[in-house]
């Protein structure tokens, strides 16, 4: 039996953040306090391609802090891609921790289908 699930991503797992960064060929995230134009944020800093300031993942709150000045300091599609890959990596990691197998398939529309096999 198959089930379709839609996931609203909360970024709460540093290991999955690292996996997503490696998969996207980004620098390893660093836990730091960083400047975001006129403010600071503390958490796992992820430097996206061509972004002026990093995205800061607050894993306690599950939220992101960033300043891309409405796309002028960083293209939204880079953040969207990071969140998509984070969600895939998190789902696969959790499935494997539960003893399930997980596979993924890229779809023509840019989405990713993750299949989790429960039992044989």
Tell how many strands the DSSP assignment holds. 6
**Average residue-wise pLDDT:** 93
Most strands sheet? 4 strands, antiparallel
Number of helical segments with 4 or more residues: 2
What portion of residues is helical? 25-40%
Total number of domains: 1
Measured by DSSP, the beta-strand proportion falls in 25-35%
Q: Which residue ranges are poorly predicted, with pLDDT under 50 across at least 5 consecutive positions?
A: none
Based on secondary structure, the structural category is: alpha+beta
Nearest-angstrom radius of gyration?
Answer: 15 Å
* H/E element order: HEEEEHEE
- Taken from the alpha-carbon principal axes, the silhouette is globular
